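User: I'm putting together notes for a lab meeting next week and I want to include a structural view of one of the chains we've been expressing. I don't have a solved structure, so I'd like a prediction I can at least talk through. The sequence is below, exactly as it appears in our construct file.
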Amino acid sequence: MRTILIIFTFLTLTSCRDSHQKPVSKNDRFELIPEPDKDLREAYEQQQKSKLAADTTYQEFMGETLIPIRKKLKRLSNKPGWTVINKIKTERNNGIAEYYYLKDELKKVRFLQNTDSTDKFAEYYIDNDSLFFVFERQTDKNALKNDHEHYKPSEDSLFFNGGTLIRIKSNIDREGLFTEAYRKEKQTRLIAEFESLKEQLKNQK
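Assistant: Thanks for the context. Below is the predicted structure for the 205-residue chain, given as structure tokens.
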């Protein structure tokens, strides 16, 4: 009988020690952390959406105005069968312009210009003889040479609606980029460059 009591006591002590040392499973630990209240989470998300909707900058930059522009750009960017491609040397410093037609309508102008200090690449997208999108890429040769590892050329995507520049998207932060004065200056320059390229095409015919 004494032997049985000793064995029973030993088993009881072993069982208690194991229960104290048993690790808490990963799932058990997660269950100790309450999930955020769903209603509070949804209310916060709706509050953020309301703030964005009231933000005129958000409406201009991310609203539905850009949707038809992006659709037209996508159609022309998917390599359609261009009917005519004219390539001429322009009067602007060592510039080369390429004119892309669908049937008899000018749809895109690509312009490349190399100078001692900069390389410039631009594409002008046209609908009904009016700009709706421009992409510009400019490389500062000296900056590239001095910091080849970290230098990034400036790239601008410019969206037009009814002949008006409505959005500027740039890969480089520039002070005054979104001011009205900067936008008008950019709009005037781009339209003037585009008209100059069209005029030089006419002079070649």
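A couple of points you could mention at the meeting. The first strand starts at residue 84 and ends at 89. Residues 2-11, 13-36, 51-60 have pLDDT under 50 and may be disordered.

User: Perfect, that's what I needed.
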